[in-house]
């Protein structure tokens, strides 16, 4: 891929150009450590989640903030994007998986079942 996204304890997301090895965009809006990042299927945006209990969406071409997803009652430990790009999910300290519509930034639903933090998320390719 053209881009590499990194999240840091410095509360930022960096978008790196893999051809040059240089970071091109510093994405600043989190007010806590960034715990997880995940790209959209087409690479046009990246989601990030952190200890500020929020999920953000960033434009990869410009580094601009595209959306804020607010709902978690604790740290966001993991984010993932479906293969078709129609779902963004986040999980964390509140033991819940939150489902979001990345096209509208709307909350869709949440699901529970874990007795501890949700620390990882992954969609199947189908």
UniProtKB/TrEMBL annotation:
List the PROSITE patterns hit by this protein, alphabetically: WD_REPEATS_1 (PS00678), WD_REPEATS_2 (PS50082), WD_REPEATS_REGION (PS50294)
Residue ranges annotated as coiled coil are none
Can the keyword ATP-binding be found in this entry's annotation? no
Establish whether keyword Zinc is in the entry: no
Q: Which InterPro entries match?
A: WD40/YVTN_repeat-like_dom_sf (IPR015943), WD40_PAC1 (IPR020472), WD40_repeat_CS (IPR019775), WD40_repeat_dom_sf (IPR036322), WD40_rpt (IPR001680)
Key words, A-Z: Repeat, WD repeat
The segments carrying the WD repeats are 1-26, 27-68, 69-110
Gene3D superfamilies named among the record's database cross-references: YVTN repeat-like/Quinoprotein amine dehydrogenase (2.130.10.10)
**Signal sequence, renumbered to the chain:** none
Name of the protein in question? Uncharacterized protein
